[in-house]
Write a structure and sequence with these properties.
mainly alpha, 10 helices, globular
Amino acid sequence: MARGTRRTQAERRAETRAALLDATAGCLVERGYSHTSTNDIIRLAGVSRGALLHHFASKAELLGAAVEHVANRCEMEFREAFAALPVEERTLERAVDQLWEIFRGPSFDAALELLVAARTDRELRSVLQRVLKQFERNVAADFGVLFPAAASGEGADARTIVRFAFAALQGAAIAHDIGLDGQARDIVEMLRALAAELSTPRPAQEPVR
């Protein structure tokens, strides 16, 4: 922003909210869910407790918004990275590679902390269910646009394919996090093979006589 340019109130609110969400995700990655406190978050974000309460009524709401913030950022990063590829390389296998880069990064680590905590936290579970369902719908819509032939072919629909891919990549990411890199590679390679199979045109079937 140029010197002397005054920010609007809406811009200041947006910046404060983004700082809180980035700080929340950072605390989850560095400290884990059980050691992430609102005091840590506001200190890292450089804001007051009043600013936190102005944006989020509860810790569960803040954590859910942080997951949504991270998910939206991951979706944007995926779109940009995929769009930067040469057209001939925009395949399902490369899409798996791009997603794997995201799943083995800090964004998934932050989400994983909350997914585990939500098992016993009803309020957090309710917030996460809403956020993750919306993320799934967004990614399924992206999949339908990027790979219309695969999404409209026989068998599973776009949302089921996305659910399966996410489940596989989540398992691979957990294996990676605990040092089982060989297992993680096997899962990702199998998913790439399935993506290649899904992309292969099916031969026209002979009419039944």
